[in-house]
Every structure is written in structure tokens, then in C-alpha cells.
Write a structure and sequence with these properties.
400 residues, alpha/beta, Aspartate Aminotransferase, domain 2, Aspartate Aminotransferase, domain 1, seven-stranded mixed β-sheet, 12 strands
Length: 400
């Protein structure tokens, strides 16, 4: 069709499709909106969006329709008022801490066995910026109360299920301890997912997810999400606008796609995880198995109370008897189905060596103090047939 305004080819090519007709259909899958900027027929509407007087979009760093759809979805899954998406789980953790007041002169109380990246953020970045950080065993509620009383922290930071020792946090008790000292409770719910527990309903103020893991679920996207109150989400949005750790629309769409099968995947991963943990307990080359679904786990009853009948998660940690790095690497090299990879929550079963990967930034002495030994293996159980997974583990353990 000829251009009704008689525009030249170069002009038509530059503006092709920008002002297409408004469709009368509704897609059943959220569209991907890659546009960096947005315009309005009336410039006063654009001004109103920039001023916050009306809803809308002006610039991708300030918001995007596809990303917003993801934020609404995760907030709904976590029973939260609002959510803010970020380019990674670490960006989400960092922004959450900044939004609640982590700055020079403030203090944070954190579980000592948090993910190594989170530990490094607290220990190597925020400490150098004047933030006081105290790491402790979050299962020791008395120690948490004492630390909160002494430091008056802005936040208590824990993981629902810790990485990689799989300790289960007593969220209601930790919420009480935090709130009694005026702190907010930030909970990383990546391992548990909203399928197992929703921390906001148990007293948490902020829930963080590495959307890279179970929410996305297919190992093909990097993302982070923070779920909280509408008031605190506004603060998170201001942090995002000035730090620029935005999630792209393609990535948001991939996480949205993953959410559609979240409950199906995690239910199967819980079933497989329990079966494999029970099998590992009886293996002569495994010295110790950490899994909340085992009666031997220190927080087994707590996990049952928090998770109900839904399961105990798809993460397992176990120690190879008498093994160090060489023995672990030999075990990894012998695996044929389980994949040595530096992530988790995928549909495929993955194994990781915390001492050289997730917790490499933590000193060997500190790892030993926390309980992350040189023979520790972390396993993210997938959705494969559990019999095939057991066969693969058996043949690999035979070479250790």
C-alpha cells in the first residue's frame, strides 16, 4: 500500500509498524515489548507518567509492560502487594538492602550460611561502605535476638532453606526477633519457592527470588524479583531507576513462561529429592546427607510445619566420605546424566561443588567454620525418572 503522506522509502523504513492499528484480539500469552521508549498522543499524558500522576511507560529503565506482567505474576504467587524485577538475583538482594536503609552507619544481621555471592556482597562490598554486618547461625534464635538487641539492624537477612547446608529458617520466630528491634526481615525464598512456603504470610517484610532458578526453571534466563509492600516497592523502583539493574523484556517473558509450570516441576522435584536423599543415606561412600525431608535433619519438624504436605524441596547436599576436591572432581567426571553446572532449579539434575563455585569467595577457614567441607556436594534434583538418577549416582560413586 502506498504511503498516504507520500513519505520517501528511508522515512517509511525507519517508522515501519511504529503506529500500527489497535487489534481487537487478546493474545493468550503475554507479548514481548522490546521498546526502550514510549510516546503518547497528548504530551501532557507523557508528562503525567513521568511525574507519577498516572500509570504508563516512558523509558525501559523506568518500566516495561512485559516486565510488569512478570512482577504482577510473582507478587500474586507470593501473596504480596507488589514486586520489582531485576536483572539478576544478586541485583535484587542488593536493591532490597539499599531500599530498607543499608548505608554507612547502619547494621545488618545475616545467616552465616547464605549463598556465597550474598555473603561476599555483605562482607566485601557493604562492609567497605560503612555497613556493620554480623553473620550468625540463624537457627540459634537466642543469638539472633542478642544481635538484634545490640546492633538495632535495619534488616535481618536469611534464606528459607539455606545454600548449601539446607538449614530451614523459623520464619515466624525470626520475624518477631527482627520486628522487636525495628528491623525488617528479608527472606531469600529461592530454594523453597512459593510452592512450598510464602514468607510474607509468616511475618517476612521482603521476599527475594533468583528468578534464574526455579521460577524460570529451564536454565535459560538470568533474573531476580523482590516482593514486598506497595510502599517499599516504590522505594525499590527508585533504587532501580538510578542503578539501572533492569530486567529485559525477553528475559521477563522467559520467566513468565517458566511460571506456568512451576507447581508441576517443583512437585516432581520434591518427590525425586526425597527418594534420592533416602537412597544416599544408606550409601557407604556418603558420610552425611542434608535434606529437610529426612527425620535426621535438625529442622525436619519445622520444615514439615512450614511446608505442609507439599514436600521438602528439590535441593540436597551430601558429603563424600573422606573425599576432598580430587575425590569430588572424580565423582563429577564419572557422572553421565547429572550435569556439573553452576546453577540450580533446572528441569535437569545438576551438581555443584560449593568450595570452588558458589562459595569460592568465602575463605577456606570461614567455610570450615560454617560447615562447608571439602567433600560437600550440592545437588539440584530435576524431573527425570528417579531410577535413572539413582543409577547414575551409583556408578559415579563407585569410582570415588
Amino acid at each position: 500500500m502506498p504511503d498516504p503522506a507520500g513519505r520517501r522509502l528511508a522515512t517509511r523504513a525507519a517508522h515501519a509498524g511504529v503506529r500500527g492499528p489497535m487489534p481487537d484480539f487478546i493474545p493468550t500469552v503475554v507479548p514481548i515489548h522490546p521498546s526502550v521508549s514510549y510516546m503518547y498522543e497528548d504530551i501532557s499524558d507523557l508528562d503525567g507518567v513521568i511525574a507519577g500522576a498516572r500509570e504508563g511507560y516512558v523509558y525501559a529503565r523506568y518500566g516495561n509492560p512485559t516486565v510488569h506482567a512478570l512482577e504482577e505474576a510473582v507478587a500474586a504467587l507470593e501473596d504480596g502487594e507488589a514486586a520489582q524485577a531485576f536483572s539478576s538475583g544478586m541485583a535484587a538482594i542488593h536493591a532490597a538492602l539499599l531500599a530498607v536503609g543499608a548505608r554507612a552507619g547502619s547494621a545488618i544481621v545475616a545467616a552465616q550460611d547464605v549463598y556465597g555471592g550474598t555473603y561476599a556482597l555483605l562482607d566485601q562490598v557493604l562492609r567497605t561502605q560503612g555497613v556493620s554486618v554480623r553473620f550468625l547461625d540463624a537457627s540459634d534464635l537466642q543469638a539472633v535476638k542478642v544481635a538484634c538487641g545490640e546492633l538495632s539492624p535495619v534488616a535481618v537477612l536469611v534464606e528459607t532453606v539455606s545454600n548449601p547446608l539446607l538449614k530451614v529458617a523459623d520464619l515466624p520466630a525470626l520475624a518477631d526477633a527482627a520486628h522487636n528491634s525495628g528491623a525488617v526481615l528479608i527472606v531469600d525464598n529461592t530454594f523453597a519457592t512459593p510452592y512450598l512456603v510464602r514468607p510474607l504470610a509468616l511475618g517476612a517484610d521482603v521476599v527475594v527470588h533468583s528468578g534464574t532458578k526455579y521460577l524460570g526453571g529451564h536454565g535459560d534466563v538470568l533474573a531476580g524479583v523482590v516482593v514486598t509492600s506497595a510502599e517499599l516497592q516504590a522505594d525499590l523502583h527508585e533504587v532501580l531507576k538510578v542503578t539501572g539493574a533492569n530486567l529485559g523484556p525477553q528475559e521477563a517473558w522467559l520467566v513468565l513462561r517458566g511460571l506456568r509450570t512451576l507447581t508441576l516441576r517443583v512437585r516432581r522435584q520434591c518427590e525425586n529429592g526425597l527418594s534420592i536423599a533416602r537412597w544416599l543415606v544408606d550409601h557407604p561412600k556418603v558420610a552425611r546427607v542434608m535434606y529437610p525431608g529426612l527425620p535426621s535433619h535438625p529442622q525436619h519438624e519445622l520444615a514439615g510445619a512450614l511446608f505442609g504436605e507439599r514436600g521438602y524441596g528439590g535441593m540436597i547436599s551430601f558429603e563424600l566420605a573422606g573425599a576432598g576436591q580430587e575425590g569430588v572432581f572424580r565423582f563429577f567426571g564419572a557422572l553421565r546424566l547429572c550435569l556439573p553446572a553452576t546453577t540450580l532449579g533446572d528441569v535437569c539434575t545438576l551438581v555443584l561443588y560449593p568450595a570452588h563455585s558458589s562459595h569460592r569467595a568465602v575463605s577456606s577457614g570461614e567455610r570450615a567454620r560454617i560447615g562447608i567441607g571439602d567433600g560437600l556436594v550440592r545437588m539440584s534434583v530435576g524431573i527425570e525418572a528417579v531410577e535413572d538418577l539413582v543409577d547414575d549416582l551409583a556408578q559415579a560413586l563407585s569410582v570415588v
